[in-house]
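User: Predict the complex with calcium ion.
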Amino acid sequence: MDRTILIVEDEAHIAEGLQLNLEMEGYRAIVVGDGNAALEVYRMSPVDLILLDVMLPGMSGYDVCRQIRSEAGRVPILFLTARSDEDDRILGLEVGGDDYLTKPFSLKELLLRVKAIFRRQAWFATTGRVPDEYHFGGSVINFKTFEGAGPRGPVSLTRKECMMLKFFAEHTGEVVARDVLLDGVWGYDAYPTTRTIDNFILRLRKHFEPNPANPIMFLTVFGAGYKFIPPEK
Ligand code: CA
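Assistant: Here is the predicted structure with calcium ion placed in the model:
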């Protein structure tokens, strides 16, 4: 089954290079040059992944991502950012992006990321040791709908948040190093800073910890990583 990748990039030579290489790898690639066109394509046809440039004419890549997420769209989004500022990268994740690549990037690196995203998606779509409706510590999450409930009411998770929670659920009680988590959820060796992980941990705490500032489930193990310990009841 061909996967469709939507490339949102206003620099034609970059867009063409991406399209050509992705097609050579067997993907279907659609190119658009601005945010409105991206939303139009996204709403009309199923897309398996969006490569989303941040600096676009008109609407920014962040705004496109926000809009898609606000419509409950859960397609994986990989930001292509010219900015190397860490805060900008974090913003990309906060608005619901799954990952980012800083320009200039190598096509090899991009293809690795794309493959990794699809590989992790396949893992995530398979029901393994953890049931699709997973109860823990008084909270619940449905790994198919990404909907659930935490101590403060209904929660709606992003795909990445769900993947991270599922990974933790599969490793309950174990100390999980940040790079293991990165590899497990993102599917490649640690290139993004471990702050990426820390950022997602904060989000999980916000969703599910009775007191996010004083976590009892998503624990930091100093110098080692994290440990997920759902209370018995
Ligand atoms: Ca651009």
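The chain has a mean pLDDT of 89.
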